[in-house]
Inverse folding.
C-alpha cells in the first residue's frame, strides 16, 4: 500500500475537501482561478519533475504499484514538504480522465515560461514564432505543441479562444512538450501581432488568395511569423488585414484543406530547415 510507503492516511471519501478542490481543476475557470493544473500518468510526472516545475501535490492510487526509481523521486518531493496524497481507487477515478490511468496525478502551478498577456516583453531577436487563432480542438493544440518542440519553434502564440493549453487532453497530446516551449495566450491576437510587426517581424497568414506566396517557391525567413486559423473558418479577415502577406501550401487539386496540426507541421519543418 502506498499509504504505508509514504506514511500517510488513505483518503476514501470523494467528499474530502482537498479531493473536491483538485477535482474542480478539470474546469478551465477553476484552473485559471487557482493557477493550477493536473498531469495524469508517470511520463508527465517525470517531465514535471525533470523540468523542476512548481509541483504542489501528488495524488496516488493507494493500490498502484510503482517502480523503485519513481518512489525515490516521490520521496524526494515529500522530503521537500510537497504533499503526497494516497487515495482509494474509487476516489482516484473521480480525478482522472484517462481510460487506463497509471495511478499518479500531479498538481502543478502554471509554468513560468507561459504568459497570458497581449504584450510580449521578452521576444528574442532570433525567436521562431508561430501564432494560432481560434483552434479549438484540444488534440490539435497538443499536437501543435509537440510539433513545435520537435522542429525548434521557440514560442507559440494562441488566441484566448483556442483550446485551453492546460486541459488534460492538450497536455496528453503534447507528450510533455508543454514544459519546453514559451507559450503566450493573448486575448487580443491582433494587438500581439501588431506588436511583433513593430519589432520588424513579417506576419504571414496562411490562406489561399490571388497574390498569396507559395510555400517552397517564395522565400521565407526564420523571423517570419505564420498565423494558422480556425479548423473550419481559417484565418479571420481582421487578422488577414493586418498581415504583411498571405501564403498557401501547394496541394493536389480537388482535395480538402489540411488539418491545422498537419499544416502547422509542414510550415514548422520549413522553418527548421532554413
Amino acid at each position: 500500500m502506498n499509504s504505508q510507503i509514504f506514511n500517510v492516511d488513505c483518503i476514501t471519501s470523494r467528499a474530502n475537501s482537498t479531493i473536491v478542490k483538485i477535482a474542480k481543476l478539470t474546469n478551465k475557470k477553476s484552473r485559471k482561478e487557482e493557477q493550477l493544473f493536473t498531469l495524469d500518468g508517470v511520463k508527465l510526472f517525470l517531465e514535471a519533475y525533470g523540468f523542476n516545475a512548481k509541483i504542489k501535490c501528488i495524488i496516488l492510487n493507494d493500490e498502484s504499484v510503482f517502480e523503485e526509481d519513481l518512489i525515490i523521486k516521490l520521496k524526494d518531493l515529500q522530503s521537500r514538504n510537497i504533499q503526497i496524497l494516497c487515495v482509494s481507487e474509487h476516489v482516484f477515478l473521480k480525478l482522472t480522465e484517462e481510460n487506463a490511468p497509471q495511478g499518479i496525478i500531479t498538481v502543478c502551478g502554471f509554468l513560468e515560461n507561459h504568459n497570458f498577456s497581449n504584450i510580449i516583453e521578452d521576444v528574442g531577436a532570433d525567436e521562431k514564432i508561430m501564432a494560432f487563432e481560434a483552434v479549438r480542438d484540444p488534440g490539435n493544440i497538443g499536437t501543435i505543441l509537440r510539433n513545435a518542440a520537435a522542429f525548434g519553434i521557440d514560442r507559440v502564440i494562441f488566441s484566448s479562444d483556442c483550446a485551453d493549453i492546460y486541459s488534460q487532453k492538450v497536455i496528453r497530446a503534447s507528450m510533455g512538450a508543454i514544459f519546453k516551449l514559451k507559450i503566450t495566450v493573448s486575448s487580443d491576437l491582433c494587438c500581439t501581432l501588431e506588436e511583433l510587426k513593430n519589432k520588424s517581424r513579417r506576419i504571414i497568414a496562411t490562406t489561399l488568395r490571388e497574390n498569396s506566396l507559395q510555400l517552397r517557391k517564395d522565400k521565407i525567413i526564420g523571423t517570419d511569423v505564420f498565423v494558422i486559423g480556425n479548423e473550419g473558418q481559417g484565418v479571420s479577415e481582421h487578422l488577414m488585414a493586418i498581415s504583411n502577406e498571405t501564403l498557401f501550401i501547394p496541394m493536389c487539386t480537388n482535395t480538402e484543406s489540411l488539418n491545422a496540426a498537419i499544416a502547422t507541421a509542414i510550415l514548422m519543418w520549413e522553418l527548421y530547415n532554413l
Q: What stands out?
A: DSSP finds eleven helices and 13 strands in the chain.
